[in-house]
Design a protein that fits this description.
- By secondary structure, this protein is α+β, with helices and mostly antiparallel strands.
- The protein is about 15% helix and about 35% strand.
- The chain contains 3 helices and 7 strands.
- The strands form 2 sheets. A 5-stranded mixed beta sheet has the order 2-3-4-5-6, covered by helices on one side. Strands 1-7 form a two-stranded antiparallel ribbon.
- The protein is elongated, with a radius of gyration of 27 Å.
- About 15% of the residues are buried.
């Protein structure tokens, strides 16, 4: 979405709200395409003492696969972004300044970049997810491990003595 800020560029105190949806379903993360719903973007561009400030928030629900138990789950995702909009950059080192192109800014580009950079590298269905048993592969969130308990080799003789006492 291209937004023309000419109306508020030279008017301190003026603002312009925006809302749009974008399709990021083709984005791939870790071999998956988690963005299955449109991403809603809401925000405002406002002139504060002659400086244009842009604040936006991109929100959707992601379809994720838990990195511990491999179960699919839905997870709400919100990414916030703010920057200064300027007609020319005086400080080349400042990444918080976005240049206007003929009094226009591409909000979809800003929102998608902010959303992508805010994506999690690991996803969990819950903080206390127990994951999969490395031996039998059962989902430990749903059922107990089926593995036979391994005896520490250093204690094998003691286990044999205890087994003889039970007989």
């Amino acid at each position: 979405m291209i937004l023309n800020v000419n109306r508020i560029l030279h008017t301190p105190g003026a603002s312009q709200d925006f809302h749009f949806e974008m399709d990021l379903s083709d984005l791939e993360f870790g071999g998956e395409r988690p963005v299955v719903h449109p991403v809603a973007v809401d925000g405002r561009v406002y002139n504060q003492a002659g400086v244009l400030l842009c604040e936006l928030q991109a929100s959707t629900t992601l379809r994720c696969v838990c990195d511990r138990c491999m179960e699919e789950f839905d997870s709400p995702k919100t990414a916030a972004f703010s920057c200064i909009l300027a007609e020319e950059k005086q400080d080349q080192e400042n990444d918080d300044i976005v240049l206007l192109d003929h009094d226009e800014v591409d909000l979809a580009d800003l929102a998608s970049t902010a959303f992508i950079l805010d994506m999690d590298t690991k996803t969990l269905c819950s903080e206390d997810c127990k994951g999969l048993c490395p031996g039998c592969g059962v989902n430990l969130n749903r059922e107990a491990c089926r593995c036979k308990k391994q005896v520490d080799p250093r204690l094998a003789k003691l286990a044999q003595l205890l087994a003889q006492d039970d007989e």
